[in-house]
Every structure is written in C-alpha cells, then in structure tokens.
C-alpha cells in the first residue's frame, strides 16, 4: 500500500477526537466532554478529598502550633504556586490546545514534535524558576524568616512538576483524560503519605520543631511529583506504538521550523500563565495586604492575625477547593474540544459546547457549593476544631466558590476559542476592582473582607467574559435560564434539608466531637444528596447532562 493510500485509509485519517483509542471516532463532542469531565472530576475530587483528609491527623500532631503551621504553610504555598505557574508557563494548556488543533487536521507528527520542544522549554523554565524561588526566598518572605525554610523545600518540586504537567497536557490534547486523572491521584497519594509520615515522626512522636515539620510537609510536593510523573511514563509506554503509527501516517502538509514552534508555544502559553494563576494572584494580594491593612486599623497581635489569616486563606480555602475542583475538571476538558471546533470554524458547535459547559457547571457546582455551606460547622470541626469564626468563613467562602468556579470554566472557554489576550484584559480589570475594594472591605470585615473583594473582582471578570462570548457566538439563554432556575431551586432544597439535619442532630450531639461531626456530615450529605438526585431525575433535568444514563438511574431508583 503506497503512502497516499495509507493516508486515505479511514483509520489513518483519524481526525481529532481521541485518536489513541480505536472506538472513539463516533463520539459526539458532548459525550467526549462528559467522559473527559468524569475522568478529571474523579481524579480531581479524589485528590482534593485526600488532600483534605490528611489535615485531621496533621492538625492533631501539630497541636497548639496547628494554626501557626497552617499560616506558614499557606504563605509559602501561595508564593510557590505563583512560581510554579510561571515555571509551567501555561505550556500544558497551550500544548493541549495546539495538539488538539493539529490532530484535527491530521498533523499528528507536528503535535508530537511540538510536545518534544515543549519538554525542553518547560525543563528550562523549571530550572530558572526553582533557582529564583530558592535564592530569592529572603526577598519574598515579607518579613517572616520561617518562610525561607518552606520556600527552599518547595523549590525542588518546581524542577519536576513542569515536565509532569506538560505531559498531562499532551495526553489531554488527544482528549485522553485518564492519564491525567490517575497521575493526579497518585501524585496526591504520594504527597500525603510523605506529609503524614514526616509529621508523625517530627511532631506526633518526637514533638520537634514545628517549622521543620512544615518544611517537610511542603517538600512532599516533590515526592508527589515524582509519583505522578512515573504514572505518565507508564502511559507513554502503553501508547508508544499508537503514537508512532499516528506520526508515521500524518498528512505532513505543514512545515514549521523549530524556532517557529517555540514562538507558537510561547505565544499560546503567556496568556495561560496569567489566567491559570488568576486565583493565586488574588491570594497573593491577600497575603501581602491583609496584615498591613489589619495592622493599620487594629491592634491585634501577629499571632492573632496569623490565626485569622490561616482560617480564611488555608483552613476554609482547603475545603472549598474540593468544590472548585469540579469546575477545574470541566475547564481542562473543554479546551481541546473547543479548539477542535474552532479549527473547523464551527461556530454553532462552539455555541452548543459553551452552553453545555455552563449547564454542566451549574448542575454540579451550585448544589455542591450550597451543600458545603450547609455542613460548614461539622466540616470545619472535623478537619480543624470547633470554631464559630471558622464556620462562618467557610460558609461564606462556599458561596464565593460558585463565582470562582464559573471563572475557571469560562476563562478556559476563552482559551479554547483562542481569545487568550482578551481574557487577560478582562482579568486585569477584575484585579483592579479587587484592589479598589480590598482596603475598605478588609478594614470593615477583616478576613471576610478579603473574600468579598475577591468575589466582586471575579464577578466583574465573569460578566465581561460571558458578554463577549454571547456577542461572538450566541448563548442559548432561554435554555440556560430555565435550566439554572431549576438547579437553584433544587439546590436550595438540598441546602435546607442538609442544614436542618445538621442543626437537628447537634441538638443532642457534641459539637466539638470530630467523630460525631463525621456522622452529622454523612447523614446531612445523604439526605441532601438524595433530595437533589430525586428531583433532577424526576424532572428530566439530568437528561440534559447525562442523556440515556438518566433513564437507567430512574429505573434503578424506581423514579417516574
């Protein structure tokens, strides 16, 4: 069979959609989004839950130092997160988008070449950013020398994670979310295992230096990265023959030089850096302004301010990120699918895909956020300790999570359709709004004020993005408004049932008990979840999201 005959073969002309699997050719974009979202949601949720559960023994072993330790952990991690995003440089999302683009036009070899060039670039940025983080720690600690130790421990992870993240982006470009999800879970498993082992021996058994304990807990990021990278290497071995086949049977009609590939990666990546670090940037604004504002308007000691900061920046945020991870999973899934539609010039498909993404977001995020708000008291008690302040902040932060989650989804949509620069401009506007409201809100409401200014800033960004998408591609607002109205109704029902169950159980249970808090959470979640599941199935609302699976669930639960 000659070269042209092989290219004309339907198998070799595997345009776009998940070419690593032989049976994915007939999948619709909605089915691919659901499958990808399922993988990424499972990986993200399990990772977040694992990343939250470790807090229970960790806090116990750190004892009276737990809030101080959380504050130090957060200060170091916020700075590290920014440098990590800079090291990754938006390359994974850019690679995902561009690989999907090249796959859609049967240029698989070019996409694989792009990945190899991206590896060299990400390795270089990782080394540079790790060096800056390690050597620049004294200039980044904002007057807290303990932060230096944490940043030195975290710098090692910056060396490895860019390569791991880039490889995840490559698989996502093929719309294969399984490798990313499993790698993410293994990464978290290895990280948490190292954290707990070191915390137990340093603090739980030997009652050692809590700062050293925190530094080892942050060094765990490096251990986790090694585990996640090994999983991806195994997947590469699994798919190596298929990748070689696709490369051999590419159209090879595009000729792009190495320098042009690097320029393409950088041009695509820079906006991803800013958008990908959006929430982290807002957290850094809080970190570098909260203490200064509070020192000006109050006479609280540094210990009290550290405890306040730990409550909203670490404690509550750690639990709320479980909910936001739902949106993150959907966001990762939508980028390559939208890029493929954009490549084909299919504006109708883009409109449908955007609408479906928003509906899926509402279907999962709104009840999850309201549910977290309803169980905020037992959740905070379980993971930390009984605290009225902590409960109130977690409850408020749960509502803010809806705004942050929506930004995560629609900013990814903007990147998927190639509107990166405009998304950055909108985010800059939101950042200015955050700065404007930061001082008065923190001065009036202290810790909650930071969350209020964040919510206002991201609300402005969300409005600007949605307005633009509607102007360019049109959104089915009738369908969205009808769907979301029902979701909000059922979600408030879920919230009401969960909060009534929580308050009712606490009439005869000990609110300070962690074991009883777990029981309260279990009962409230089951009752609230059953209510939501029943009504979305009975009203046929679930059919909009999961299609034929909804009918099977109705038969299973005997719902008519």
UniProtKB/TrEMBL annotation:
It is found in: Cell membrane. It is a multi-pass membrane protein. It holds the Pfam family Polysacc_synt. Residues 10-29 have a biased composition (Polar residues). Keywords: Cell membrane, Membrane, Transmembrane, Transmembrane helix. Residues 1-29 are annotated as: Disordered. InterPro entries: PG_synth_SpoVB, Poly_Biosynth_Transport, Polysacc_synth. The keyword ATP-binding does not apply. CDD domains: MATE_SpoVB_like (cd13124). GO terms for cellular component: plasma membrane. The chain crosses the membrane at residues 38-65, 77-96, 117-137, 149-171, 192-212, 218-237, 265-285, 319-338, 358-376, 396-414, 421-437, 443-466, 487-509, 515-537. Signal peptide: none annotated. This is Polysaccharide transporter. It comes from Pediococcus stilesii.
């Amino acid at each position: 069979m000659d070269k042209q005959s092989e290219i004309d073969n339907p198998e070799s002309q595997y345009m776009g959609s998940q070419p690593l699997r032989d049976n994915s050719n007939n999948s619709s974009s909605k089915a691919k989004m659901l499958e990808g979202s399922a993988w990424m949601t499972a990986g993200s949720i399990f990772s977040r839950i694992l990343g939250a559960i470790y807090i229970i023994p960790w806090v116990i072993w750190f004892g009276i130092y737990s809030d101080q330790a959380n504050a130090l952990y957060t200060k170091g991690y916020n700075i590290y997160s920014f440098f990590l995003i800079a090291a990754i440089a938006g390359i994974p999302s850019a690679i995902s988008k561009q690989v999907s683009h090249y796959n859609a036009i049967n240029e698989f070899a070019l996409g694989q070449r792009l990945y190899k060039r991206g590896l060299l670039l990400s390795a270089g940025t990782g080394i540079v950013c790790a060096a800056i983080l390690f050597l620049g720690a004294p200039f980044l600690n904002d007057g807290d020398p303990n932060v230096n130790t944490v940043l030195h421990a975290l710098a090692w992870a910056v060396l490895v994670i860019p390569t791991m993240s880039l490889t995840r982006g490559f698989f996502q470009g093929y719309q294969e979310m399984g490798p990313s999800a499993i790698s993410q879970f293994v990464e978290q498993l290895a990280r948490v295992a190292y954290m707990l082992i070191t915390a137990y021996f340093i603090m739980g058994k030997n009652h050692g230096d809590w700062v050293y304990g925190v530094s080892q807990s942050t060094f765990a990021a490096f251990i986790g990265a090694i585990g996640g990278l090994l999983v991806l290497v195994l997947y590469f071995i699994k798919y190596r023959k298929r990748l070689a086949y696709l490369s051999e049977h590419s159209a090879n009609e595009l000729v792009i030089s190495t320098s042009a590939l690097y320029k393409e990666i950088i041009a695509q990546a820079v906006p991803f850096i800013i958008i990908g670090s959006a929430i982290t940037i807002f957290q850094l604004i809080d970190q570098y302004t909260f203490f200064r504002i509070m020192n000006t308007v109050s006479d609280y000691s540094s210990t009290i301010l550290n405890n306040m900061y730990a409550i909203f920046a670490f404690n509550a945020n750690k639990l709320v990120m479980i909910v936001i991870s739902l949106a993150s999973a959907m966001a990762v899934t939508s980028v390559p699918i939208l890029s493929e539609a954009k490549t084909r010039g299919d504006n109708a498909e883009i409109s449908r895909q955007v609408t479906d993404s928003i509906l899926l977001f509402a279907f999962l995020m709104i009840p999850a956020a309201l549910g977290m708000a309803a169980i905020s008291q037992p959740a905070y008690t379980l993971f930390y300790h009984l605290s009225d302040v902590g409960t109130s902040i977690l409850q408020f932060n749960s509502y803010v999570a809806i705004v942050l989650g929506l930004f995560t989804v629609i900013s990814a949509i903007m990147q998927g359709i190639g509107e990166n620069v405009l998304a950055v401009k909108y985010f800059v506007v939101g950042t200015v709004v955050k700065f404007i409201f930061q001082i008065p809100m923190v001065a009036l409401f202290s810790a909650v004020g930071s969350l209020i200014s964040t919510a206002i800033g991201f609300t402005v960004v969300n409005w600007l993005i949605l307005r633009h998408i509607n102007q360019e591609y049109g959104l089915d607002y009738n369908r969205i408004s009808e769907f979301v109205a029902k979701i909000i109704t059922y979600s408030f029902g879920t919230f009401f049932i969960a909060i009534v169950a929580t308050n009712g159980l606490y009439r005869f249970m000990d609110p300070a008990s962690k074991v009883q808090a777990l029981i309260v959470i279990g009962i409230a979640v089951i009752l609230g979840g059953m209510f939501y599941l029943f009504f979305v199935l009975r009203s046929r609302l679930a059919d909009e999201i999961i299609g034929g699976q909804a009918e099977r669930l109705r038969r299973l639960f005997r719902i008519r």
